Amino acid sequence: MPGTTSLKQVAKDIKELKIQGARKIAKSAVAALVSHAQISKADDKHELYEIMLNAAKELEATRPTEPMMRNALDDALRFTLAWARTHEAKDVSSLKKALLSHQFSFLSQMDDAILKISKYGAAEIPQGANILIHCHSSTTMQILKKAYDEGKNPNVTCLETRPLYQGRLSARELSEYGIATSLCVDSAAGSIINKMDLVLTGADALSAEGDLVNKIGTFTLAQLAKLHSVRFLCAAEIFKYDPLTRFGKAEPIEQRDAKEVWGRGRYRKEEQFLKKYSPLPLPKGIHVLNPAFDRTPAPLISAYITEEGLIPPAQLALIAEKKLKGEINGKI
């Protein structure tokens, strides 16, 4: 999480990818929302809710393909509204204290979910397995570290994940942990897939159809895995499920700036070492397509690794709806 929970700063950091990963984004957004509520000068509970609602909209607008952030913010809003209705005699100060307590409970549940996912995920990794991963996911990192701690000694190949090279972040983190790690260009995935025992990815969004929305390139990787009979697993908290897709709403695919493609051509955090180089100007007449995510159909996914255990894509919506409803009802 960032060093500041200022609403404006967190929104800016999320938009500029200084805060990355669905979990980190959701946790940072909730912290910013609650912090914004704490410093508000609302005179009553209704005014506080309106302030929080507008703040949540500002945060949600930073990344359209982040249902985990939306679910987390909606959870805080539901709690606020329900608490205000069931504690009519209480004042704004009491609501703010309750909101802080709720935030602590929510973040604790998120951390507990990751521990469960890492346990379930590590159990699916064979001894000495060759594993291919894409982008950077804190959830997959925890699974791989757990497997390594259990003595399974996985061999992990990280795809670079262009255009922002988040795969380098994964490779560096795993290597520093002691895990045997290789880095591979995205376009070579087809050349190495038959050497893999498992493909493991994170998730940005899960749909009611059981489809996966994740970093661009995931769909291609899933097709390669299917063609070569390689197991494709996705690690994700159920809070990444988008309930709106149940009613036919398509998960939006964010289009990123062309400068990320026709620019310096290196991972953002490495720029401090290469400051003397300037971004390459985009020639006139060239239109750059830079979708941040793609959609992987459910039939290409072997299973989802969740805090509830392994879930087949066909059962995802049923379990997710029950889980989210139970958590919402249980927090009021």
Characterization of the model:
The chain is an alpha/beta fold and 332 residues long. The protein is built from ten helices and ten strands. Helix 2 (22-39) runs antiparallel to helix 5 (92-123).
For the structure shown, list the relevant keywords.
Four Helix Bundle (Hemerythrin (Met), subunit A); seven-stranded mixed beta sheet; Rossmann fold; 10 helices; 332 residues; alpha/beta; 2 domains
Chain-wise SSE layout:
Blueprint: H1 7-15, H2 22-39, H3 45-60, H4 67-86, H5 92-123, E1 130-133, H6 138-149, E2 155-159, H7 166-177, E3 180-184, H8 189-192, E4 198-201, E5 205-206, E6 212-215, H9 218-227, E7 231-235, E8 293-296, E9 303-306, E10 309-311, H10 316-331
Parallel strand pairs: 1-2, 1-4, 2-3, 4-7, 7-9
Antiparallel strand pairs: 5-6, 6-8, 9-10
Helix pairs in contact: 1-2, 2-3, 2-4, 2-5, 3-4, 4-5, 5-6
